[in-house]
Amino acid sequence: MKIRNLDLGEKPVLLAPMENVTDITFRYICKMYGADMVYTEFVSSDGLIRNAGKTAAKLNILDYERPIAIQIYGHIPEAMVEAAQIAEAAAPDIIDINFGCPVNKIAGRGAGSGMMRYPDKMVDITRQVVEAVKLPVTVKTRLGWDENSKIIPELAERLQDVGIEALTIHGRTRSQMYKGDADWTLIGEIKNNPRIHIPIIGNGDITNPIKAKEAFDRYGVDGIMVGRASFGHPWIFKEIKHYLATGEILPTMSVAERVELAKKHLAKSLEIKGERVGVLEMRRHLSCYFKCLDNFKETRLKLVTENDPAELFKTLDFINQNWK
Q1: How far apart are CA 218 and CA 240, in angstroms?
Q2: Which residues belong to the active site?
Q3: Hey, CA dihedral for 101, 187, 127, 123, is it positive or negative?
Q4: Residue 111: pLDDT band with limits 50, 70, 90
C-alpha cells in the first residue's frame, strides 16, 4: 500500500490515533512490535493556533516513529488550514484529518464525526487543507451520523476528488459510538468501487489476528487500523503480522514478558517526559498490561497511585514473582 511515495508494504497494520493513549511512548512500544504506521493523539486545531502548550506538545515526534501521521481536528476552515500548516512544520509523513471521533466534547460542536452532519463543509475543509500543505493529506471517518444517514459511499468519492490520498473508515456510525459490531460491508463496497483509486483502510473490531485476516480476505481493504485492542496489548501488531505471514497464532505473552515490557515502557516514559509526568501518564498503561490477572486489585491500585518510579519497578518485580 502506497500513500503518494510512502510505501507501507503489503497488508500494513496501523496504530489508530487515540486521545490519552497514543502518546510518544506508546507509539514507541507499538513500533517495537511492528506497527507499520502510527498516529499522534488528536490535535485540536483551535488549541494549536493558540499555541496551547499541551496541544503543541502533541506535535513532538521522533525519527524512530516514522512513518507517522499528525492528526488534526476542528470545524472552522481557517483554523484547520492554519493548524495543518503548523503540523506540517513539525515534519510528519502525513497530515490526517479526524472526521471520526464520536465523543460529545468533539462531535457535539461539529468537529470529528460531528462533521458527518455537514458533508459539504467536511469536503470544503478537506479541500482547503489539501491545497494549503505539500504533504499527503488523509482522512479518518465513520459510516455516517446514524443508521439513516450512512453517507460514506458518496462521501468517499467526494473526499478523493478534492485530493486526499488515503481514507480510513471506521465501520460504525457516530450514534453507535463504540457499541455493537462494526459493519465492514460498506467498507468493502467502497474498496470495490471502480471510481476509488486511493487506498482504503478499514477500522473497527480488529481485536485479534483472525479478524485482521478476514478484513483483508473478505473485504479487500488495502490496510487495517487497530485501535482499542492495542491498549494494554501493543504486541497485537506482532501477532497479526505473524498470522498473516504464517497462519500460526503466537503463544500468549507470559507474565514475565509483560513485566519486562511494562518496565521498558515506564523507562521510556521517564526518559522522555521526566519523573513526574512520566509516572502520571504511565498509570493508564501499567495496570492494563496485567488486566488478565486474578486477585490483582491491591497491586493494580499501587500501579495507579504510586509516584516513586523505584517503587513502581519494585511492584513490577513483585508481579513477576507472584503471578505466572
Answers
A1: 16
A2: 101
A3: negative
A4: confident
